[in-house]
Amino acid sequence: QVQLVESGGGLVQPGGSLRLSCTASGFTFSSAFMNWYRQAPGKERAMVAGIGSAGGFTTYADSVKGRFTISRDNAKNTVYLQMNSLKPEDTAVYYCYVPMFRSWGQGTQVTVSS
Q: Which strands make up the sheet holding 3-7, listed edge to edge?
């Protein structure tokens, strides 16, 4: 079955950086479009970034453009989210999502606070 396991979340000060990872199994990762979403307390889950199967296409929410970078390593079945210049409003649970199978990871908490 499809499994997505996120890691890399934590507590970071404003202006800091984190890199999230999502390792996939149970499907042909190299053929799948992948997304990162996030959900802040009291808010709906929202798309953060997406990447095409070969990595040549990427898309970002306006709120993270220029600060976050999505990438993937198909040899490792892993998609990454590099987050720089973090702001308190980036605080959320971050989820990996594969649209092809409508499957979510368990999420990883990112807290940006001084």
A: 3-7, 18-25, 78-83, 68-73
Going from the C-alpha of 60 to that of each of 13, 14, 32, 46, the distances in angstroms are 23, 20, 17, 11
Distance CA 31, CA 41 (A): 33
pLDDT, one tens digit per residue, over 63-72 is 999 999 999 9
Question: 67-76 long-range CB contacts below 8 Å, 24 or more apart?
Answer: 70/34, 70/36, 72/34, 74/29, 74/30, 76/23
- For residue range 20-55, list pLDDT tens digits in order: 999 999 999 999 999 999 999 999 999 999 999 999
Beta-bridged to residue 51, according to DSSP, are 34, 58
**Cα–Cα distance for residue pair 3/59, rounded to 1 Å:** 23
Q: Give the dihedral sign, CA 85/87/91/94.
A: negative
